[in-house]
Design goal:
- About 75% of the residues lie in helices and about 0% in strands.
- It has about 170 residues and is mostly helical.
- The protein has one domain.
- The longest helix has about 40 residues, at about 5-45.
- It is elongated and about 70 Å long.
């Protein structure tokens, strides 16, 4: 295979990986937070399930801001993450030559949501729930770092060639 053929092959792999990565990020994060927010605010009308009232009875969240208020706040934040994903798409941030600022803000808001949920689980003594939220937080961190590595922050050959080879 000639150098030109290798470069074309690498370019196709870079482009395919770029697009598949972004579609996966928008789909995974956007859908996850849309349905989570929808469940809290629309399906459940801002009322936390009885099991959560029982779990958080006597905790800080039971007195301030209240379990239902906390439920609504989390739902609004989750819809906020989804809205930022949509705004990022509408702004064309999915294009390789566009900065991914709204996408990164959306992922950062997802960090805050997972941290707030973790605070709630910790306050109720649910260590297993807290541990699973750390996994979500960490996975979101990996997604954040991958998005930071995508073009235009890196060269078009972001995957097949390191920056030193450009």
């Amino acid at each position: 295979m000639s150098a030109s053929d290798r470069a074309k092959h690498a370019s196709l792999i870079d482009q395919a990986t770029y697009w598949l990565t972004l579609v996966a990020v928008y789909f995974l994060v956007g859908v996850l937070f849309f349905y989570s927010g929808k469940a809290k605010l629309i399906t459940e009308h801002g009322t936390a399930p009885a099991a959560l009232h029982k779990q958080f009875a006597g905790t800080f969240l039971d007195t301030f801001p209240g379990i239902n208020t906390s439920w609504v706040i989390i739902g609004v934040l989750e819809f906020g993450v989804c809205a930022l994903m949509i705004l990022s798409i509408l702004r064309g941030e999915f294009l390789p030559d566009r900065a991914k600022s709204l996408l990164l803000v959306g992922l950062s808001l997802a960090f805050l949501v997972f941290a707030a949920l973790s605070f709630g689980q910790t306050s109720a003594g649910n260590n297993a729930g807290t541990a699973s939220l750390y996994a979500y937080f960490g996975a979101t961190g990996v997604i954040f770092l991958i998005v930071r590595r995508l073009p235009p922050a890196s060269p078009a050959s972001w995957l097949s060639h390191g920056p030193a080879e450009e």
